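Model it.
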Amino acid sequence: MRVPRVAYFPDSFHEVNGVAHTSRNFVAYAQRHGRPFLCVRAGTREISYEQVGELGTLELERSRGSVRMEKDLEFDTLFWRHGGAIRRALERFRPDVIHITGPSELGMFGAYFAWEMGVPLAASWHTNVHEYAARRMGWLTGRMSAAGGAGVEDAVEGGVLWATSQFYKLAKVLFAPNDELCRMLERTTGRPCYLMQRGVDTEMFSPSRRTREVSDRAVVLGYVGRLSVEKNVSLLVRVERELEAMGVGEVRFLIVGHGSEEEALRRELKEAEFAGVLRGSALGEAYANMDVLVFPSHTDTFGNVVLEALASGVPAVVTQDGGPKFIVRDGETGFVTGDDGFTGAIAELVRDRVRLERMRLGAREYALGCGWDAVFDRVYEGYGTAMRRTGLGVETV
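Modeled.
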């Protein structure tokens, strides 16, 4: 039985974020299983096409006309110049389905060529852009009354969600990293939605990578991710101050990542090491040297870093919003709580090292059951739905 030929257009690939991380693992999955797969992505090289077995890669350089969205994320206003190269690659590859990851310049090209070639479009939702847009209105809403500011943020969030949903309606089938988002997408687009969760490399992220001295009795509170407003990283400062006021000592932070809020965190946190962006074994070692992951984001759709922490034997404290709450088993592999509960949860683990150790073991055990192959096998089942909705009869396994 022939598996579908998939042309994949990720918003990001080389960057440090959840979409890029998932995309790199998706390519590795296709290569590992010998599946016909074309990855069309943006990079720093000039136009480059490579073919190794069934795996093709078209990398396209972003121009100086790119608009910076975040420290390592850009939108190229001149990306249209690559239209010819993309068309030639797709004609050579002959995809059965085109899969995009959002309304970026890559996503727009993928949606256009799916329409032009009569190929079913699949789209995955990785980022709550509507919530990000609302959070970034702080420069305006901070000057308004509480009610007025909340009204503006609600209006922005609703408007962006509506606009983004119209784009996602172009697809025959959708993917999202948790059930809550799937239900929202099915309601706003009328399209079927399948889970596209995240997996974890349990060898790269493992308690065995811990290098701290046994005599080090401090509790290291870790944060991994973008240091930006929408990640709610200001809560880290509040946690440190409240722990100090409670008389909870022997605590320090290990911050991995970069972003617009880094300068403020460096200024406000008293006991913190800033490691910058880490990859590979250095990142695995950083996780393993933490004792608790503090992840205060309300906007993450999944939370790769939470799963990586659990695989490293590090329980996580997360909010009641977004995707991380679906990963953490409250009271067993960490805590799920509101902003006001973070300090108390952390203080409990600092004071009760026996419970902390029990959670460390539970976190590792949970992560051992999360693999990338199972994640992408389900994605291919979703492709079958997309092709049936288009009247194609390609098998998915």
